[in-house]
Design goal:
There is one protein chain. The protein is built from twelve helices and five strands. It is α/β, with parallel strands linked by helices and 290 residues long. Helix 1 packs across helix 5, helix 7 packs across helix 8 and helix 8 runs parallel beside helix 12.
Length: 290
């Protein structure tokens, strides 16, 4: 199939099968897989078995280039904004069309690099909405440290900082973005499911009763399917005092910006919650219906 025909087919196919796109924005270890698996329980949600990055080579992906959990080291490869290729976005949609269920619905996507590509996604996957998930930064870094011991704690903290700094830079451009905190999702599940359902206009709304008793999640600290629960302390316990100090030294300003205590001893829950409404910035172009 020629590129022109592929582009035309992709546009037509998406119009017929997509209510709108939903992208989960969050760094690996932040609860993105937990959130995706929760959303997957709703009958209107359509998703792929794995992260979308595994099904397309239209834009640079972290696995072939060898930058798993360290992609901010090569922003020249992985950072995308609205100025980047619209054709690559259509090729991505073409590739994904062979993986998504064919029934029309809300297309959900979660890839680790989405956190630094939100502006590109909004510009070329229309209409689109975003759900950003934040989690205690020390627990997030501990999760990566546990799973990828070859990475230094300095590199892990730097990845967390750079990715979130870019995300904050992009917030002002996003037209429809809901912020969810992992800790709230675990402790006030019904309330958070209602917020998400209202944001996505789900009918029926998501409820805890719709979820399986054990949620499939990616390589948590127990390496097991578990009920929805907060595993921050279990992850934090894997860090040494020196490693926590390194995270604070490198990412301290951004830790406070996201809403978490700077000092590890002050707890692993947010002290300030961004986006009490639906959006970190309610205005902006390219949201649903744009």
């Amino acid at each position: 199939m020629s590129q022109q025909r592929r582009v035309s087919w992709s546009r037509d196919y998406n119009e017929r099968t997509t209510e709108f796109w939903v992208f989960i924005l969050g760094l690996h270890g932040s609860g993105t897989t937990l959130l995706k698996n929760i959303l997957d329980q709703h009958p209107d949600i359509r998703s792929m078995p794995r992260e979308g990055q595994h099904y397309t080579s239209a834009v640079p992906q972290v696995v072939p280039y060898g930058f798993v959990r360290n992609f901010t080291a090569r922003l020249d490869l992985f950072r995308l904004t609205e100025a980047d290729s619209a054709t690559a976005a259509l090729r991505t949609q073409f590739d994904w069309s062979f993986v998504y269920p064919r029934e029309k619905g809300i297309k959900l996507e979660k890839s680790s690099t989405d956190i630094i590509r939100a502006r590109w996604l909004q510009a070329h996957f229309r209409p689109s909405r975003f759900i950003t998930i934040f989690r205690d930064p020390y627990a997030v870094c501990a999760s990566t440290r546990r799973r990828y011991p070859r990475l230094t704690i300095e590199d892990i903290a730097r990845q967390w900082k750079v990715a979130h700094d870019l995300l904050f830079e992009d917030f002002q451009y996003l037209g429809s973005n809901l912020i969810v905190y992992y800790e709230d999702l675990c402790s006030r599940l019904e309330e958070q499911l209602r917020r998400i359902s209202e944001f996505l206009e789900l009918n029926p709304i998501l409820t805890p009763a719709m979820l399986p008793s054990l949620i499939p999640t990616a390589k948590n600290v127990y390496d097991a399917y578990l009920p929805v629960q907060n595993l921050n302390e279990e992850n934090r316990s894997r860090l040494t005092a020196e490693e926590m100090h390194a995270i604070k030294r490198i990412a301290g300003e951004t830790i406070s910006r996201v809403g978490y205590p700077l000092e590890p001893a002050d707890g692993a829950c947010p002290v300030v919650r961004l986006g009490c409404g639906q959006s970190a910035r309610p205005s902006g172009g390219g949201g649903h219906g744009a």
